[in-house]
Amino acid sequence: MRQNLNNIYRFLITSMTIILITLLFPNIGNFKYEYQKGKPWMHETLIAPFDFALLKTDSEISKEKDSILNKFYPFYKKDTAVIAEITTKFNTNFDKNWNNFTKSTTYKKLNHTNQTTNKESLRFKEYLLLNLNQIYDFGIADFQIEQKELGYKRPNFINKSVNNLNEIVPIENIYTPKSAYQFISKQVKADFPSPAYQGFIQDLNIDSYLLPNLFYDANMSEQVKANMLSMVSLSKGIIESGTRIVLVGDIIDDHTFLVLESLKKDYENILGSSQNHYLIVIGQCMLIISCILLLFLYLRNFRKQILHDNKKLLFILLFVLLYVALTILVLKFTIVNVYLIPFALITIVVRTLMDSRTALFVFIITVLLTGYLAPNGFEFIFLQLSAGIMAIYSLPRLERRGQLVLTGIITFLTYSVVYFAFALTQETNIAAIKWENFIFFAINGLFLTFSYSLIYIFEKLFGFLSDVTLIELSNQNHPLLRQLLQHSPGTFQHCLQVANLAEAAINKIGGNPLLVRTGALYHDIGKMKHPAYFIENQLGSQNPHDKLDFDKSAQIITDHVKFGVKIAKKHKLPQLIIDFIETHHGAGRVQYFYTSFKNKYPDKEIDEEKFTYPGPDPFTKETAVLMMADSVEASSRSLKEKTPESIRNLIDKIIDKQIAENRFQNADVTFKNINQIKDIFTKALINVYHARIEYPKENK
């Protein structure tokens, strides 16, 4: 029942992925000819099948837009309320400052009568208001602030809008706060040269009344600019039906390439808008199904564990869907260049969370799907494959964040070299190469350095275990390992030796050495519950098992697996590490106490469950190697004579017994692997127990 539900789930997520990608694909046909600038035309002679517009090049369109924008004058709206506020403020402050001015020693030297003083006050006030009104009538604008905030060049003319009436005026006729102050100061000096009046102007702080009353109208400016740019024609002529476009073997020059691009655009749009557009959708759906089917065939034949793991399968399909959606979004809205999308990130993330072969295959499928959409598909696919393969080669194992920087640099160099090679074959002039693409390649490489954070997120969401996490877990300063060292020092040393043996064996037969080492370090953490009941932690000659029945002792021994799982879950260790705890004894028996019970009570019926570990048996290469290493290391300590022959005989005896009990039937290990493992264990233990030189005693 559960298997059927899993199959239904996998079918549903696969179907949804196919449907979503099909819906995302643009509903346009696909031009049936492949071509490249500078290369010969490899198809039959092409005749124009219908009239179509000859498109302008990007540079031609850009020049026309620049020419139009040179005739565009930004709109500035006049705020008539500013002069009214300034006038009120000026009248109030002028009268107050004039009263103070008439009491000053400087003014008294003028010897004006009260009547003259009043006349001078009125004349000077009206004079200043007249100049202020004149300045505000022309308008004051702070171009420097607006240029900095809005980022446009200072124009020669502007559209001045007053009460919805627009007037084009030269920029010289508009004041800035600084030029307005300079103007009014110059006028006062000319018409009122007396030092007394100059001092009054300074005290009046005339620049505080010179505020902008012309403000940039962004909405109107952008609207008019957009209308002007919309008038730019994207075509520059018509290619009539029946016109010969290119002959077989002709080199595709700039003009021919432009004609082909124009035909391709119209051809695809016509197909997409025709009544038979559903045939295009069917064809696209078949292509998508083909790619997904290739992915499933790979998983079925080489990575069944991924295919049967719903979370991993969902992760792969979502990753493919994400990149297809991102590519379509970029191509549709032309927000950024398609080469900014870090496709090599697929190889880094999938390689770190799974393996290199799966990373490459998922990457190829994704590039094939997006290559159908990208312009100049062959160049796009070639570039992405080159960069992705180099990313895999440059990152055999992610252990340090600094490796991502190197991978980013290598990816950038790969993109740059391959793109430059393509450009040389397509452009007759080096200046015509789109050098800005190299900036996009650099940013692309920079994006790869952020994959470290993504890997962490995907680990938590989908339950993966990366090499980075394994390195963190295998650090002997990890709180749980320090706790093991403190409570069960003998067990800790045993775990270290088992880790060394297992890692050496996996390095030889192939597998994940970091995973098996980490699993070995934690496989016996359950012994912390009753450390004194395990011989490696017993310091004296007393053994607590001597006071217990054999079945009780066996129960304590087998329970260390159960306690280990409980401790691991409490400390939130990954399931892959917990697998090592559960399987390192498999479903085997506690042979010592089982045999002792059988010998003491030959006629008594044995409850074998009390003497049996809960299991399961190992089901991966790494867990199988750990079981062998654990048994061999523990038993080797009991050897009285540790010679190469005795060590080898012990290893053969233990592992052959495990084989006879079918402990490895679910694990991916061969007899060849097992013989290699025996050799590795033999050499390692001989080195551990080799004879030391006995130092002579000093004669007294």
Automatic annotation (TrEMBL):
Per UniProt, residues of the HD/PDEase domain are 487-644
- Highest taxon of the lineage: Bacteria
Q: Which InterPro entries match?
A: HD/PDEase_dom, HD_domain, HDIG_dom, Metal-dep_PHydrolase_7TM_extra, Metal-dep_PHydrolase_7TM_intra, PgpH_phosphodiesterase
The reply to whether Ubl conjugation figures as a keyword in the UniProt entry is no
* CDD domains in alphabetical order: HDc
The reply on keyword Glycosyltransferase is no
Record key words, sorted:
Membrane, Transmembrane, Transmembrane helix
Ranges annotated as spanning the membrane: 7-25, 278-301, 313-330, 336-353, 358-374, 405-426, 438-458
Q: Which Pfam families does UniProt cross-reference here?
A: 7TM-7TMR_HD, 7TMR-HDED, HD
Query: Which SMART domains would you find in this protein's record?
Result: HDc
**Coiled-coil residue windows:** none
Q: What is this protein called?
A: HD/PDEase domain-containing protein
What species was this sequence derived from? Labilibaculum filiforme
